[in-house]
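=== RUN LOG ===
request id: a7f3
mode: sequence -> structure
chains: 1
length: 323
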Amino acid sequence: MYRVLVLAPDGVMDTSLALTLDSLETANRLAALKKQDVRFDTTIFMPRRRRIRTGLGAGVAVKPEVRISRFDALVVPGLGLATIEEVEAFFAARSTSVLLDWLRDDGARCPLIAASCSSVFLLAEAGLLSGRAATTTWWLGSAFRERYPDVDLDEARMLVETDGIVCAGAALAQIDLMLHLIARAAGPDLSRTVARYMALDARPSQARYMMLSSVAGLGREVSEIERWIRQNLSRSFSITETAKALGMSTRTLDRRVRLATGKGPSRFVQRLRLEHATHLIETSDFGLDEIAEKVGYRDVTTLRRLLRRHLDVSPTEMRSRSA
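=== RESULT ===
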């Protein structure tokens, strides 16, 4: 018996909560069909009693209070926090303060803690991610980095595990989180079977979903840097030329970009090139040679290699999916 405690505070996303429950119930049913001696026993912990509108399968209990020592894993589905203002309002609430105290005192003792999307902020606020690697929803990456500078954040990754804490990216990455938990508890075969049964594809990176122009908290100077780069994307240019055109030193440009994105200027330029290339592949009839030239790569092989390395997808696969 693998005992899972699902934390459902006010503001939990119904979709993320449903994915958590459905994946565990599917694992139980498939394990029974395969005659595997595996069962996930799920309890939903509501710090404040609330109605659960998603369907609860067999083996799921709903309780207002729990003892953490009884559980093998604590799972926090994604919270519906889309902006830094909503994050700040969430942490200003008295109910959140009580929840943070519980996480620090009791939740931290759970052998495995898993969270996705903006609920990763909750773990970081409780101090559970200090000095650890993490990921979170990509559009709040810069805000997360500014609020928790002691966390090694890589929002391009879909899943990160460090010392018994697993973080996943944007809201639907909750399913990646649950497949990972199922694999840890019951083996990769059952996890793969659940993924096939639920018609899920593997998404090792959320970089392909990033749109840097809408990342929260970039700031005016970085927005101006981004605008200049986009205007000159089809040609080769140096970081020194960029800084001079914007009236700042290369050191200032480097510092501003790193603070906002966690990447150096060269990586920032590369990400913008790949973003635009992805857009053209999915929305135009241009050949890959033309697209490579439009985003500043004179060698189409370079573009192919970068798409595979950073987005884990080929141009052919990308175009067929969009079709």
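=== NOTES ===
The chain is about 50% helix and 10% strand.
Strands lie at 2-7, 40-45, 60-63, 73-76, 112-116, 133-134, 152-153, 159-162, 165-168.
=== END ===
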